[in-house]
């Protein structure tokens, strides 16, 4: 039986090297650059791939010798097709950084990787100034990569244990929550400088929605007659639907956006959906905050401001947990900031408290 039945070398107009195609252990057709202009060497690489995947499929071999760079590229295609642009960007960075580390260690293949190597990688990142959260994200990312490798029969089990050791977070900045005065100063300027975006920022501050939840909110999940909206893809939850209560002023804002877009509630000035990669949205508020001398404003400031003022309005920690849609109460506790005291109560009074 000829080798062409299982794979074949070929040339591409956009590359000086020989490429090969072949079928992997789960029957998926793969393409790969051999990084050589020698057809004989390309055939040798092809034969090794076919032999390896045959052994992986038959259980003769457990872990693939596939180059990590090639695996990473394939994994990123998987991520890009299923997750947001921001998630893809994060995973792309993790793949690049880990790949560079492997090359620096003289390693390149999946079979070269073990948990000890990953621990040394994290130690290296810490020594180069990476914060605990960044390193924990790298580990989370690598764990997900190896889970994918298992589904592709590239390894028998995850290199990282289910309960791998995370780095205690002691070097992160305290989340910023605006005081009532800071909030009013910023929103007054937004109303003057960016009148179109003022109602969108108002919703952002008064619902506790995350950025991606705000810009992807669809009309089919908004129920103005019942004064609530649904969040169908809440962060950190594979299943289930969250709900957010709407005050009278929020309902009026939603009504004002009717007809601007068929699917999405909030769109830009050209009535186009906001891009997941857009930074203009938050840069507007950051520029105003910097001009006013208010530091530390970012994508999470609106949510922390909502949570802190919700508690300040008289809500209990449990009520605030439900409003912020947290799974664990300890997450909500990080939203307790020192803000100006008030005797107002919950959503309706909070609306009056932060009104411009």
In short:
The chain has 356 residues and is mainly α. It has 14 helices and 6 strands. It folds into 3 domains: 3-58, no CATH class; 68-151, Tyrosine recombinase, N-terminal domain (DNA polymerase, domain 1, Orthogonal Bundle), CATH 1.10.150; 180-353, Intergrase catalytic core (hpI Integrase, Chain A, Orthogonal Bundle), CATH 1.10.443.
Your description of this structure?
By secondary structure, the chain is mainly α. It has 3 domains: 56 residues, no CATH class; 84 residues, DNA polymerase, domain 1 (Orthogonal Bundle); 174 residues, Orthogonal Bundle (hpI Integrase, Chain A). The strands form 2 sheets. Strands 1-2-3 form a 3-stranded antiparallel sheet, with helices on one face. Strands 4-5-6 form a 3-stranded antiparallel sheet, with no helix packed on it. A hairpin with a 4-residue loop joins strand 4 and strand 5. The radius of gyration is 26 Å and the shape is elongated. About 2% of the residues have low confidence.
Helix-strand layout with pairing:
Blueprint: E1 7-11, E2 18-23, E3 29-33, H1 39-58, H2 68-80, H3 85-104, H4 115-127, H5 132-151, H6 180-193, H7 198-207, H8 211-215, E4 222-223, E5 228-231, E6 242-245, H9 248-256, H10 280-291, H11 301-312, H12 317-324, H13 329-333, H14 346-353
Antiparallel strand pairs: 1-2, 2-3, 4-5, 5-6
